[in-house]
Design a protein that fits this description.
With 243 residues, the protein is mainly α. Among the domains are: 93 residues, no CATH class; 58 residues. The chain is 49% helix and 5% strand. The chain has 9 helices and 4 strands, in the order ααβααββαααβαα. A two-stranded parallel ribbon has the order 1-4. The protein has a two-stranded antiparallel sheet with strand order 2-3. A hairpin with a 2-residue loop joins strand 2 and strand 3. Helix 8 packs antiparallel against helix 9. The longest helix is centred in the last third of the chain and has 31 residues. The radius of gyration is 22 Å and the shape is globular. 8% of the residues are buried.
Length: 243
Protein backbone atom coordinates (compact mmCIF):
# COMPACT_ATOMS: atom_id res chain seq x y z
CA UNK A 1 0.00 0.00 0.00
CA UNK A 2 1.18 3.50 -0.81
CA UNK A 3 2.04 4.83 2.65
CA UNK A 4 1.54 8.39 1.43
CA UNK A 5 -1.95 7.83 0.00
CA UNK A 6 -3.68 10.28 2.40
CA UNK A 7 -1.65 13.15 0.93
CA UNK A 8 -1.32 11.89 -2.66
CA UNK A 9 -3.43 13.96 -5.05
CA UNK A 10 -5.89 12.27 -7.40
CA UNK A 11 -3.81 13.17 -10.53
CA UNK A 12 -0.70 11.69 -8.86
CA UNK A 13 -2.63 8.55 -7.90
CA UNK A 14 -3.74 8.14 -11.49
CA UNK A 15 -0.23 8.78 -12.80
CA UNK A 16 1.18 6.02 -10.57
CA UNK A 17 -1.47 3.67 -11.91
CA UNK A 18 -0.98 4.63 -15.55
CA UNK A 19 2.79 4.13 -15.49
CA UNK A 20 2.52 0.76 -13.75
CA UNK A 21 3.93 1.80 -10.39
CA UNK A 22 0.58 1.02 -8.73
CA UNK A 23 -1.38 -2.13 -9.51
CA UNK A 24 -4.72 -1.00 -8.06
CA UNK A 25 -6.46 2.36 -8.27
CA UNK A 26 -9.41 3.21 -6.02
CA UNK A 27 -11.70 5.70 -7.74
CA UNK A 28 -14.65 6.14 -10.05
CA UNK A 29 -15.16 3.05 -12.22
CA UNK A 30 -16.27 5.29 -15.07
CA UNK A 31 -12.73 6.68 -15.32
CA UNK A 32 -11.41 3.35 -16.60
CA UNK A 33 -11.61 4.43 -20.25
CA UNK A 34 -9.41 7.51 -19.82
CA UNK A 35 -7.02 5.56 -17.58
CA UNK A 36 -6.78 2.81 -20.19
CA UNK A 37 -6.21 5.16 -23.12
CA UNK A 38 -3.37 6.97 -21.33
CA UNK A 39 -1.83 3.73 -20.05
CA UNK A 40 -1.98 2.07 -23.48
CA UNK A 41 0.29 4.80 -24.83
CA UNK A 42 2.99 3.55 -22.45
CA UNK A 43 2.12 -0.14 -22.64
CA UNK A 44 -0.04 -1.22 -25.62
CA UNK A 45 -0.53 -4.65 -24.03
CA UNK A 46 -1.99 -3.27 -20.79
CA UNK A 47 -5.16 -4.93 -19.50
CA UNK A 48 -7.55 -3.47 -16.96
CA UNK A 49 -10.43 -4.83 -14.92
CA UNK A 50 -12.98 -3.15 -12.65
CA UNK A 51 -14.44 -4.42 -9.40
CA UNK A 52 -16.73 -2.82 -6.86
CA UNK A 53 -18.21 -5.56 -4.73
CA UNK A 54 -15.77 -5.46 -1.82
CA UNK A 55 -17.56 -7.08 1.11
CA UNK A 56 -17.23 -6.09 4.75
CA UNK A 57 -16.54 -8.29 7.80
CA UNK A 58 -20.13 -9.54 7.68
CA UNK A 59 -19.67 -10.76 4.12
CA UNK A 60 -22.20 -8.27 2.74
CA UNK A 61 -21.65 -5.63 0.07
CA UNK A 62 -23.13 -2.15 0.45
CA UNK A 63 -22.32 1.33 -0.82
CA UNK A 64 -23.23 4.81 0.40
CA UNK A 65 -25.82 6.52 -1.75
CA UNK A 66 -25.67 10.09 -2.98
CA UNK A 67 -28.11 12.48 -1.26
CA UNK A 68 -30.29 12.74 -4.38
CA UNK A 69 -28.58 15.67 -6.04
CA UNK A 70 -25.20 16.18 -7.67
CA UNK A 71 -24.79 19.92 -7.27
CA UNK A 72 -26.53 22.93 -5.79
CA UNK A 73 -27.47 26.05 -7.76
CA UNK A 74 -28.14 29.30 -5.87
CA UNK A 75 -29.66 32.53 -7.15
CA UNK A 76 -28.62 35.28 -4.69
CA UNK A 77 -30.53 38.55 -4.60
CA UNK A 78 -27.23 40.39 -5.04
CA UNK A 79 -26.85 38.84 -8.50
CA UNK A 80 -30.49 38.68 -9.65
CA UNK A 81 -32.13 42.06 -10.09
CA UNK A 82 -35.81 41.17 -9.70
CA UNK A 83 -38.43 38.43 -9.92
CA UNK A 84 -38.71 38.77 -13.68
CA UNK A 85 -35.00 38.08 -14.14
CA UNK A 86 -35.21 35.14 -11.74
CA UNK A 87 -38.06 33.63 -13.77
CA UNK A 88 -35.97 34.01 -16.90
CA UNK A 89 -33.09 32.15 -15.27
CA UNK A 90 -35.40 29.41 -14.02
CA UNK A 91 -36.94 29.03 -17.47
CA UNK A 92 -33.44 28.42 -18.86
CA UNK A 93 -32.87 25.61 -16.36
CA UNK A 94 -36.34 24.29 -17.15
CA UNK A 95 -35.38 24.01 -20.82
CA UNK A 96 -32.20 22.10 -19.95
CA UNK A 97 -34.24 19.05 -18.97
CA UNK A 98 -35.53 18.66 -22.55
CA UNK A 99 -34.14 15.58 -24.29
CA UNK A 100 -32.37 17.47 -27.10
CA UNK A 101 -30.71 19.86 -24.68
CA UNK A 102 -29.75 17.05 -22.30
CA UNK A 103 -28.04 15.20 -25.15
CA UNK A 104 -26.25 18.37 -26.20
CA UNK A 105 -24.98 19.05 -22.68
CA UNK A 106 -23.91 15.48 -21.93
CA UNK A 107 -22.78 14.14 -25.30
CA UNK A 108 -22.04 17.27 -27.34
CA UNK A 109 -22.92 17.79 -31.00
CA UNK A 110 -24.14 14.73 -32.88
CA UNK A 111 -21.81 13.90 -35.75
CA UNK A 112 -18.98 15.84 -34.14
CA UNK A 113 -18.69 14.49 -30.62
CA UNK A 114 -20.82 11.35 -30.86
CA UNK A 115 -22.92 9.19 -33.15
CA UNK A 116 -26.12 7.30 -32.43
CA UNK A 117 -25.94 3.53 -32.74
CA UNK A 118 -28.49 1.02 -31.45
CA UNK A 119 -30.35 3.91 -29.85
CA UNK A 120 -27.33 4.89 -27.77
CA UNK A 121 -24.69 7.60 -27.93
CA UNK A 122 -21.26 6.41 -29.05
CA UNK A 123 -18.59 9.01 -28.17
CA UNK A 124 -15.84 9.70 -30.70
CA UNK A 125 -12.47 8.17 -29.88
CA UNK A 126 -10.80 11.58 -29.59
CA UNK A 127 -10.97 11.93 -25.80
CA UNK A 128 -8.99 15.16 -25.86
CA UNK A 129 -11.75 16.68 -27.98
CA UNK A 130 -14.59 15.55 -25.71
CA UNK A 131 -12.65 16.43 -22.55
CA UNK A 132 -12.15 19.93 -23.94
CA UNK A 133 -15.49 20.63 -25.60
CA UNK A 134 -18.04 18.40 -23.85
CA UNK A 135 -17.01 17.39 -20.34
CA UNK A 136 -16.95 20.96 -18.91
CA UNK A 137 -20.67 21.32 -19.65
CA UNK A 138 -21.86 18.00 -18.23
CA UNK A 139 -22.22 19.51 -14.77
CA UNK A 140 -25.15 21.55 -16.14
CA UNK A 141 -27.22 18.44 -16.79
CA UNK A 142 -30.58 18.38 -15.05
CA UNK A 143 -31.73 14.84 -14.24
CA UNK A 144 -30.52 11.66 -15.89
CA UNK A 145 -31.64 9.33 -18.71
CA UNK A 146 -34.64 8.09 -16.72
CA UNK A 147 -35.93 11.64 -16.23
CA UNK A 148 -34.57 13.77 -19.09
CA UNK A 149 -34.59 11.11 -21.81
CA UNK A 150 -31.00 11.58 -22.99
CA UNK A 151 -29.18 8.70 -24.66
CA UNK A 152 -27.46 6.03 -22.64
CA UNK A 153 -23.88 5.47 -23.70
CA UNK A 154 -22.60 2.81 -26.10
CA UNK A 155 -19.09 1.78 -25.08
CA UNK A 156 -16.89 -0.38 -27.29
CA UNK A 157 -14.26 -0.92 -24.58
CA UNK A 158 -15.65 -3.93 -22.73
CA UNK A 159 -14.27 -2.91 -19.33
CA UNK A 160 -15.91 0.53 -19.61
CA UNK A 161 -19.22 -1.13 -20.54
CA UNK A 162 -18.88 -3.40 -17.50
CA UNK A 163 -18.15 -0.41 -15.29
CA UNK A 164 -21.35 1.30 -16.42
CA UNK A 165 -23.35 -1.86 -15.70
CA UNK A 166 -21.85 -2.14 -12.21
CA UNK A 167 -22.66 1.51 -11.49
CA UNK A 168 -26.32 0.84 -12.27
CA UNK A 169 -26.22 -2.42 -10.28
CA UNK A 170 -25.03 -0.46 -7.24
CA UNK A 171 -28.59 0.80 -6.85
CA UNK A 172 -29.42 -2.60 -5.38
CA UNK A 173 -26.97 -2.12 -2.53
CA UNK A 174 -27.42 1.50 -1.48
CA UNK A 175 -27.13 2.72 2.11
CA UNK A 176 -29.14 5.91 2.43
CA UNK A 177 -28.05 8.65 4.82
CA UNK A 178 -31.13 9.41 6.97
CA UNK A 179 -29.62 12.68 8.22
CA UNK A 180 -29.63 14.45 4.82
CA UNK A 181 -33.01 16.21 5.35
CA UNK A 182 -32.44 16.77 9.09
CA UNK A 183 -31.04 19.74 11.00
CA UNK A 184 -28.22 19.92 13.54
CA UNK A 185 -26.79 23.32 14.57
CA UNK A 186 -23.81 21.57 16.13
CA UNK A 187 -23.05 19.73 12.91
CA UNK A 188 -23.15 23.00 10.97
CA UNK A 189 -20.77 24.57 13.49
CA UNK A 190 -18.40 21.68 14.24
CA UNK A 191 -19.10 19.04 11.60
CA UNK A 192 -16.03 19.57 9.42
CA UNK A 193 -13.64 19.53 12.40
CA UNK A 194 -15.30 16.45 13.87
CA UNK A 195 -15.25 14.65 10.52
CA UNK A 196 -11.50 15.20 10.46
CA UNK A 197 -11.15 13.17 13.68
CA UNK A 198 -12.76 10.13 12.06
CA UNK A 199 -10.95 10.61 8.75
CA UNK A 200 -7.54 10.82 10.44
CA UNK A 201 -8.32 7.73 12.52
CA UNK A 202 -9.48 5.84 9.42
CA UNK A 203 -6.23 6.64 7.61
CA UNK A 204 -4.12 5.59 10.60
CA UNK A 205 -6.08 2.35 10.90
CA UNK A 206 -5.63 1.57 7.20
CA UNK A 207 -1.90 2.27 7.44
CA UNK A 208 -1.54 0.06 10.53
CA UNK A 209 -0.59 2.97 12.79
CA UNK A 210 -3.47 2.18 15.17
CA UNK A 211 -5.57 -0.91 15.80
CA UNK A 212 -9.35 -1.31 16.19
CA UNK A 213 -9.12 -0.24 19.83
CA UNK A 214 -7.31 2.92 18.75
CA UNK A 215 -10.01 3.67 16.22
CA UNK A 216 -12.68 3.21 18.90
CA UNK A 217 -10.84 5.76 21.05
CA UNK A 218 -11.13 8.27 18.19
CA UNK A 219 -14.88 7.57 17.93
CA UNK A 220 -15.29 8.29 21.64
CA UNK A 221 -13.34 11.53 21.21
CA UNK A 222 -15.67 12.46 18.32
CA UNK A 223 -18.65 11.89 20.60
CA UNK A 224 -17.15 13.90 23.45
CA UNK A 225 -16.26 16.90 21.28
CA UNK A 226 -19.75 17.25 19.86
CA UNK A 227 -20.76 13.99 18.22
CA UNK A 228 -23.20 13.02 20.96
CA UNK A 229 -24.86 16.42 20.66
CA UNK A 230 -25.12 16.02 16.87
CA UNK A 231 -26.78 12.62 17.30
CA UNK A 232 -29.22 14.14 19.82
CA UNK A 233 -30.09 17.04 17.48
CA UNK A 234 -30.59 14.78 14.46
CA UNK A 235 -32.91 12.56 16.49
CA UNK A 236 -34.88 15.59 17.68
CA UNK A 237 -35.10 16.89 14.11
CA UNK A 238 -36.39 13.53 12.94
CA UNK A 239 -39.02 13.45 15.69
CA UNK A 240 -40.25 16.91 14.67
CA UNK A 241 -40.49 15.86 11.03
CA UNK A 242 -42.72 12.92 12.02
CA UNK A 243 -45.07 14.93 14.22
Amino acid sequence: MNQDFPVTSKPDQQALFKNGTAGIYVGSMGDVISLYNDSAKLNPDIKFEVQNKITGPDGKYNIWSLPGYGSLVLFPKSAVEDEQELKGILSFFDKLVAQEHSNLIFWGVEGEHYSVEEGRAKPVEDLELTDREVKPYQALEIGEPDTNGRYDGLHTYEVKAKAEELIIDNENYLIHDPTVPLDSPTYIEKGERLNQIIQDAAYKYMLGQIDKAGFDVAVEEWKKQGGDQIIKEFNESYSKSQS
